Amino acid sequence: MKKKENILNKYWIVCILFIIITFFIGDNSIIKQISYNREIKNLKSKIKFYTKKNEENLKKLSFFYGDNKNLEKIIREEYFMAKSDEDFFFIKNNG
């Protein structure tokens, strides 16, 4: 009977070691899988962000190339550029 118990204990030890090696050590361990899933979520959110930015930039680009008046408007408003015979007056709000 003792020999049979000894063999069962050896099998349990081997099974436990196999489970530990399979799930916690190596390239496909649970810990690495969790970190990979986190990285995938992070990359997917970055893809959404940059896709949205790309769409915004494409809209701006089509707006710029659509008409020269639009381009001139943006240049004047955002970059404060003027024609040679124009003056700019900046009004500063205190508050």
Protein model, in words:
The protein is mostly helical and 95 residues long. The protein has one domain (2-79). The protein is built from three helices and no strands. It has helices at residues 2-24, 30-66, 68-79. 0% of the residues are buried. The model has no long low-confidence stretch (mean pLDDT 82).
Spell out the blueprint of helices and strands.
Elements (H helix, E strand, L loop, with lengths): L1 H23 L5 H37 L1 H12 L16
Return the string of H and E elements: HHH
Question: Shape, please?
Answer: rod-shaped
Summarize model confidence as the mean pLDDT. 82
**Strand residue content:** under 5%
Pick out the low-confidence regions.
none
Largest sheet: none
**How many domain regions?**
1
Helix content: over 70%
Distance between the termini: 91 Å
Total DSSP helices: 3
Report Rg: 33 Å
Number of strands: 0
Instruction: Provide the structure class.
Output: mainly alpha
